[in-house]
Amino acid sequence: MQMKKSLVIVVLALLTGGCPAVRGPDQSYENRPETDSGLMVKERGRVPPLDPERKVSEQDCSKPIDTAGGNLMCKGEPTAAERRRMDEEERQRKLAAERRAKLEEEERQAKARMEAEERAARERLERERAAQAARDAAALAAASKARAAEEARLAAESKAREERERQERAAAEARARQRAEQEAREAAERERRRLEQDWLAGRALLESFVAKYGKVEKFKEVAEPINGFLDKTR
Question: What is this structure's pTM?
């Protein structure tokens, strides 16, 4: 372990050309075991200052070193208090990571539930819309069918009414013709009776004239033709 630390210090010296003393939480760099190798200068004043523009990579030199991160600055071997602090920090980091992971998982599950609920709501809304559209289509079809049936009924009633009216007109016209024919026959019969009565009255008048005045000398010339006429029409 001591040899490894010494090699680390040599590499550090070669890379940086010297570095200032690094103080840990509990002890200075000069009092650390690494200074027993004699490779580092204990007098702080002889160490040139670091270029503030150069990148510094602070690492734990007791572990494998990454030399690509800039000028190396060793943290040194942590003390028991530092280890406890580091262990506590690591535990807190793990707890924080677990909490973050738990929160992320809860958020993921909550997001998944929300997406599932939204998807279910969309599907339910689509089903409701489809059902409503089907009900509307059925209602429209029923209304159209009812309207067609009503129109057919009205058309049938109108046709039946027109037929009744035609039959009624035909019956009225027939009755009118019958009444006119009856009236004509009655009028003809009345005229016939009138003529017959006139004829009988005239004949009776002629017979009465002949019977009353046929023997009068002056009316003989008139009575003879009348008798002849009466004899022909008996």
Answer: 0.34
